[in-house]
């Protein structure tokens, strides 16, 4: 219950800040103050728990945190948080919120659900660039409720044996030259980083990593099937998702594993991915947020019990 209260209050602070930002932009150049009183503040920076605090917010900034008994309040929106907890906004570092036709209703369901659960920032690890940039603009201007977003745009991946890409929001990479061109194009579109998937070839991956560094873009994502984790680290990849490549890299059988991979072809389709997609779409069809939460929980259960070894959306 304490965690739920903390998440609720964190979300409420974000909503208040967004409301204040919109009000300031439309009505007055002066910041609108919000004062949260009698709250217990969780401070990860100092590993401390501070009871009976007053937090004063002006515009987009927290300007003071002090003991509630020492604060005089006037001309401010007051939130009495007695018995509740305040935490910094959370970041979800791996989301897909605009992913082709997989997740309908992302703007109206996914984005506000982040805030409702205290998530005030997300790293979108593969999505439709134009859609995400438009959402980010609308969030910044206060038109819609949603988290801060940093985005990769489409993921860099290779073709499956059937000539198709595994996931929506992907760019087909067939040669090192096409990898360089894709990175350059995404840079021009305004993405924040480059995301690589699993089927991209060894040489194309190295070309993409080198060009990303040249363009000043972090490269993140999977350890591709034909690339060793040591090479990924040496190429300067900033994060590795889903622990991919780590177990192979720690194995005395790494050479044999990669030899088998070079001799085999990736599966063209994993039907369990369809189960995950359908569960999410069921959540989006629910008439209210409570139903959406239930549907999302169902999706998480499916993903835990039926997660493909190397074909998970990510």
Give an overview in words.
This protein has 314 residues and is α/β, with parallel strands linked by helices. The protein has three domains: 87 residues, Urease, subunit C, domain 1 (Roll), CATH 2.30.40; 173 residues, TIM Barrel (Alpha-Beta Barrel); 35 residues, no CATH class. 41% of the residues lie in helices and 20% in strands. It contains ten helices and twelve strands. Strands 1, 2, 3, 4 and 5 form a five-stranded mixed sheet that branches. A three-stranded parallel sheet has the order 6-7-8. Helix 4 runs parallel beside helix 5 and helix 9 packs antiparallel against helix 10. The chain starts with a helix and ends in a 9-residue tail after the last helix. The C terminus is likely disordered.
The structural domain count equals 3
- Distance between termini? 31 Å
Please describe the biggest sheet, giving its number of strands, its sense, and whether it closes into a barrel: 5 strands, mixed
The geometry reads as: elongated
- Could you tell me the mean pLDDT? 81
Radius of gyration: 22 Å
**What proportion of the residues is helical, as a percent range?**
40-55%
Architecture of the largest domain, CATH level 2? Alpha-Beta Barrel
Q: Tell me the β content.
A: 15-25%
Sketch the topology as an H/E string, one letter per element: HEEEEEEHEHEEEHEHEHHHHH
The CATH superfamily of the largest domain appears as Metal-dependent hydrolases
CATH fold node name of the largest domain: TIM Barrel
The CATH class designation of the largest domain is Alpha Beta
Number of strands: 12
Alpha-beta classification: alpha/beta
**Low-pLDDT regions:** 17-30, 266-270, 289-312
**Count of helical segments?**
10
């Amino acid at each position: 219950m304490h965690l739920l209260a903390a998440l609720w209050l964190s979300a409420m602070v974000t909503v208040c800040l967004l409301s204040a930002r919109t009000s300031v932009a439309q009505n007055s150049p002066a910041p609108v103050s919000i004062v949260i009183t009698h709250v217990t503040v969780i401070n990860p920076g100092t590993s401390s728990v501070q009871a009976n605090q007053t937090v004063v917010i002006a515009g987009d900034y927290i300007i003071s945190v002090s003991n509630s008994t020492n604060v005089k309040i006037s001309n401010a929106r007051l939130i009495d948080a007695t018995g509740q907890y305040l935490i910094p906004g959370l970041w979800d570092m791996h989301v897909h919120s605009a992913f082709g036709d997989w997740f309908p209703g992302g703007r109206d369901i996914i984005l506000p659900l982040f805030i409702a659960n205290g998530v005030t920032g997300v790293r979108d690890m593969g999505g439709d660039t134009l859609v995400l940039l438009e959402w980010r603009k609308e969030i910044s201007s206060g038109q819609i409720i949603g988290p801060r977003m940093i985005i990769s745009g489409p993921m860099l991946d290779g073709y499956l044996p059937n000539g198709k890409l595994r996931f929506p929001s992907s760019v087909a990479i067939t040669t090192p030259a096409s990898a360089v061109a894709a990175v350059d194009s995404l840079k021009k579109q305004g993405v924040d980083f480059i995301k690589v998937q699993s089927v991209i070839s060894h040489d194309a991956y190295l070309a993409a990593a080198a060009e990303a560094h040249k363009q000043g873009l972090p490269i993140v994502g999977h350890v591709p099937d034909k690339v060793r984790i040591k090479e990924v680290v040496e190429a300067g990849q900033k994060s590795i998702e889903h622990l991919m490549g780590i177990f192979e890299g720690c194995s005395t059988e790494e050479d044999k594993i990669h030899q088998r991979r070079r001799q085999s072809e990736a599966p063209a389709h994993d039907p369990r991915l369809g189960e995950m997609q359908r569960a999410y779409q069921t959540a989006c069809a629910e008439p209210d947020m409570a139903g959406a939460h239930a549907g999302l929980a169902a999706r998480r259960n499916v993903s835990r019990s039926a997660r493909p070894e190397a074909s998970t959306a990510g």
